[in-house]
Amino acid sequence: MAVSVNGKSALVTGAGSGINLSFAKLLLEHGCNVLIADLALRPEAQVLVDKHSRGPSARAVFQKTDVRDWMQLEWMFEVAQKEFGELDIVCPGAGVYEPHWSNFWRPPGSSASKDSPAGGRYALIDINITHPIRTTQLAISHFLHHRDSGRSKHIVHISSIAGQNPSFAAPVYVATKHAINGLVRSLAKLDKQFGIRVTAVAPGVIKTPLWTDHPEKLVMVDDKADAWVTPEEVAEVMLALVQQDQVSETIGDRSGRGTQFAVEGGTILEVSKTVREVKPFMDEGPGDRPGNTASDHQAVEEESIQLLSQKGWGQSKL
Length: 318
Hints:
Layout: E1 9-13, H1 18-29, E2 33-38, H2 43-51, E3 60-64, H3 70-84, E4 89-92, H4 123-145, E5 153-158, H5 171-186, H6 190-194, E6 196-203, H7 209-212, H8 215-218, H9 231-243, E7 246-248, E8 260-262, E9 268-271, E10 275-277, H10 298-309
Parallel strand pairs: 1-2, 1-4, 2-3, 4-5, 5-6, 6-9
Antiparallel strand pairs: 7-8, 9-10
C-alpha cells in the first residue's frame, strides 16, 4: 500500500545541506510542505527555499535553529504549526561526523576542542543523539495532539553503517549511531498503538559536505576503488519509508521484481548502492558492499595514535 505525501507537511532538521536537503527537495517535489531547521542554508538550499517560498503546490520555510538548544527545538515546532497547521513527517536529521571541535581524540581543554572541560557535555552528542531524542518527543506530542485527523505519522531518523561497525578514528560518532538504532527499535510499538511509524536509514559513504568539505576525512576514500552513494539515493529510501509498506533492495526500483522489505515501526534500512534491512539480532553486518567501503582508515587512525602519544593527552587545563 502506498500513501502519498501530497498535501502533507514535514519538519526536517539539518536540511541546509546533504541528505536532509535532498529529502526536503524530494518532499517538495511530491507536494509536501517542508520546514527546514538548520543553522544556515548552503547556496543550493537557499535556491530551493526561494523557489518554494510561495508555493504554488508546496511551500518551504527556513527556520534558523541550533539543535543543541531545546527551546529552539520547541520553537521550530511552533513555527511549523503556525505555517502549515498539522505536521505529518518529522526527520531529526542534523548530524556531524566527529569534528575536531568535538572529538574523542581531542578532549575538552585541547586546542582544537570547543567542548569546555567545565561544560559537562559534548557538542557531538548533543547534536547527534540528544537532539534526535528531544525532537522525537516533541514530534510524538504534536502527533498525539492531532491524532483525531486519522492521518499516518512518521519520524525518520538518520543512522549509519557506523551503527553496526566500529571505528577507532570516530568512537563517539559510532556510539551515537548505535544509540539511534536502539532508539528507533525501542519505539517500534508506536506504529500499531498510535499510528506513529519510527524508522531510520543507515547510509554508507555518502557524497555530502560532511565528507567533501573535510580533507582529513577524504583521505580514507579511494575514488578508484570505493563507490559513493548520493544523497538523492538515500532520500529516495527515506521517502519510501514514509510512503510505502514495502521497499525494494534496488534503489529507485518500483517493479517489485527484486527482494522486498516490509516497512513498519522500528525498520532500519541500510543504504549502500543497494538497500537491505538491518536486523536487530544475528545481522550479517554492512560488509564491503559497494557504497559501504572507505578503503583507507589507516591514516586517520595513525593520527589518533599520534595524538595519544603526545605528553599530557587528556589532562584537564582547569
